[in-house]
User: Fold these one by one.
Assistant:
Number 1:
Amino acid sequence: MSDRVRVVWKGGPETEGSTGEVPPEIGEITARPVFRELARFETDALTGQPEDLGELMLDSDLRSFHEAWVPAEGDLLQRFLSVVRGRGATEIEVQHPTIHRRSESPAGCGPPAPPCAPDSKYAKPLPQPALGDLTDFQGYLKPTDGVNAQAAWRWQGGRGEGIVVADLESGWFFHHGLWNRIGFVGGLGNDQPDDMAHGTAVLGVIGARRHGRRKVGLEGVANEARLIAIPAGEGSEKGAANAILNAISSRRVPPGSVLLIETQHNIELVCEDGRRISSPFLPLEATGDGFTMIRRAVDLGYHVVQAAANGSTDVGPFLNGRDSGAILVGGGFHLDGRRVYKSNFGERVNVSSWGSAVASCGAPHSTFGDLWTGRLESYTASFNSTSSAAAIVAGVVACVLGILMAHGVHLAPRELRDYLVRTGNPRMSCPGQHIGPQPDLGKLIAALVQDGVLPSELRSRT
């Protein structure tokens, strides 16, 4: 565990600088607003122009959130909490840093759910001797067991044309041969190999294109969407909620865009026996600042897709009945849809998709190069858990929004979420471990036509 934790609160200390009342032996601790402009990357890869964020949309509610990174050793954290509480702070949370490389989730106050489906026990394909057409490995695109991408691709807008998909996480490998279409908001992210591989795999699921004369590589679910990378803070000290604010403040991420949240979080719990322990991995919505910002984005018309996180637990008790309006995505075993071991579950989880055996792009010299690897691009056949599932669903949402845009139709985020759930394909379930149906683009589009949302004669792609 990191030697520092993030303390978030509302009210109380409000200014930059030392908290002023912290005992000197704790050392200097800085309180600062949670929601603030991140350092920006100087050039937009899409236009070559300097980054231009709009005015941050702050109101009194957002301005009331503050944070500090506090040493966790000894009793220093408890002293700091006493100081903040004494200065009138409310809704205090202690959040522990998480990184994608961790495969085990803290147990929380109770044991994790029993396994339902194997997390990674499937026959991996052998490494390819040469880079060729890899789409045969993309079962998640196909009808029945997948999201039926071809049902959207036949129509105008069905590959996500005109739609922005913003990926909020830690890092990406920007030298990949497919990434000449990526824009940036707030920086390049970190350079940790596994974080860079993770972000590249996420964007590959959504926006990869076969390329070259031989059409090699993969096809992303929404491979004509415009991709934006938004780092959720630097290093382990992530600020995913603030990254959402930067996203919706950017002129290049307008309302109607897809915001994909690929972070997971620990919150300190006080158990019934008085023990203080880190929670299982939870979605950003489980944090106070995260829920506030996600709900704000949804209310403004952004379609927020959020990984349910990999804590192997029911998220319900940690959400306290709250629902931000985001699409919460669980991970299902690719063969039958059962919850993969690490995926969270619960009635709040709306839909699911493949949480194992997902083929996507990777980063050279990382864990995601098992299918094929070269100097500037790599491919994996083992992207997994809620990260892969959420990326697939974000691609589905972009496809639907592209078709709606091409036909001059608008659908609010909560309405589209309802269609995803109602038209999805139930797969094999685990008793008491709800992760929702898998979206089916064919059934979803048919329902939109039947309900008169889309015209009965859709325009075919030319």
Number 2:
Amino acid sequence: MKKKSKNKKKAEKLQGSSSKWRLLVFAVVAGAISGYLLFKGSREPESQGDRAPSRPVSSRPKSLTEGAPLPEVALLSLSGEPLKLRVGEGSGPILLFIFSPTCSICTQTIPIWKELAVEAESRSADVIGISVLDPGRTEPYVAQHQLPWPVYSAANRETVIALGVQRVPMTLVVNSSGAVAMVVRGGVGQEHKDGISTFLQGEASIGSDQ
């Protein structure tokens, strides 16, 4: 009887050890599977709706360089009508004020833009404002700040990319040949203002000689 009791205890002990090993193996396997799923989840979105796919590098705005022609871009009037901005040779110099109604620095730049607009008009240059937001959010902003120049909205992201808008505010100066003469990103300082004024004077002198 004692021998059988010892054998039974030994069997129970072995069975208990076997259960512990099975639990340990299960924990290791489960941990490995969980780690793999977490790693995979960190690399791939669960669905297109959870996280938008990153834009390809080619769709990022590229800087416009001085001397490059101003591209033709699609715009929307504040009433939502589609139109094109076309600048060609002989169209005269143009100042483009690119902004966002949600940009505080853009709002701070408006007084300087207004001064430049007055000078531009006295030099027979056109002034155009382009908002990176839709007409519905742009129109109240234009009315609130009494922007005296024509204002339009970028029709799509392609317009923003074509204009090389990496941040706002942005001021583009275009010469009479339709080429970019100056690009100012951020607020317009006194040095920029003086440079634009000098450009407008030079363009006015060229126009008077023709």
Number 3:
Amino acid sequence: MLRLSSFLTGLFFAVGSSMCFAQTVEFPISFINVSPAGNKGQMFTFAAHPLATAEVDTALGEREIPSIPPPAGVFIVYTIPPSTEYLWLSPKDIRQMKPGIRFREDYDVNILWTGGRLDITWDYPMPELIDSAYLVDAFTDFPNNFVKVKIGPGTSYSTDNSARTRFKVLVWYNGTTTSVEDDRQEQLSVYPNPSYDHIEVNGVREGSVIGVFDLNGALLSEMKTVADHLTLDTSGLVPGVYVLRVVAPDGSITFRTVVRQ
């Protein structure tokens, strides 16, 4: 019940807002442990989306990988969600995007490594809806951190101190800006909504993959489009609220909510 309540809260907040963000706002950071025994690496993605909740949102790309703690000797990067009731490991942490305001989100990063050197790098442009981001240590306060590196393309941080296993990634999101890609994705339409036995999806790019998820994040059906229009059979769904995820050929993701009566 807590999961359903959290999802609906985020869902109706996003739908009711005058500012709509169609895509997940995200940027990946590379974590590599360099040692004589060999290099171990993991790409971790920090993200935000209006439909994200404080729990595991599998429809948005988060994954629950039991169990905690990981086995000894495993190199892994994970973040702690803002809750004391659960913990999960996932290559992506999605927080709720807050349309209409600027806000800071803190990601508490944990890195398990046992020696050698840790290299943290980022090589991609910062998304438009992010004003700035910093990698800092988890034990001092911003802006007077012992470790403080502004994240940007081509910059990096390295340490050979294996006791440094906790960092924070501070992200200043700009919810007052709508990107060009968001405007283009707003051409996607889904009707009738609510529906009974089918829905029509218009404005989708050819080659996109459309998935239908329930509120627990379970994938119910998935198909690839061959045109800019698709008819989805919803007659097998029980009445309720569902999430439609459209992954375009360029990797951009659009979400729509649909109601089966």
Number 4:
Amino acid sequence: MAKKQQILLVFATIICIYSCNSGNNSNKTNEDEFLEIQSNEEIVTDIDGNKYETIKIGKNIWFASNLKATRFSNGDKIPNVKEDEIWKKNNGPAYCFFNNDIKNYDFGCLYNLYTVIDKRNICPKGWHVASNDEWNEGKGNSTSFNLKDKLFNNKILGWRRIQDDVDYYVEGQLNRDPNYNSFFLEDNSKDGGSAIYWTSDKYMDENYDTETAGDSIIRGSIHDSGGLGEYGWGYRKDGFPCRCVKDSL
């Protein structure tokens, strides 16, 4: 009888340990839950004739690579601005290739915010630049997707960034690091898989907040793939790539 009790006790202990571990794993899954990225048969052609494979993430259909259009969906040309000073002074739509080298065209174009939010739409008809909510479908449930998934084709050489009107603040202090004044900045991640993408969201800002009345600087929301879901703001004259999402399924 004692032997039977010992066996039952050992069995109960194993069940308890398994249950506890399962609970811990479940919590971790909830914290780091990613939507599955699935292949999709649809091929999309933009106004310039570029073809894009598509993928399904959650309920949405995405481009599997960065947008390369040099015209708006109505046919209007987007100015290709190469000179740094002209890019910096420009207050309208513009695009460029990384390092102004057409050899980098396959990595997608870098656009300023004026281009991304233009009503003429840089994505093909029936598609739009991904919003914050689409980058993170389940905001309240910590659900996103792994941008390092091979189907997402998350590759970019770098981006074009300039110091904005009110400087950059890091940890509450004014930052005048010369790197923030430079233009083309390279992606130095080991796997080449980090990128900063424009989203279609924008707001008016002047004091690094969204509450001050009278703010007059347009800022765009950006998604940092290096953090797998890190959001921030971008200056209107920064040059970042973007992804298109289908309007409806």
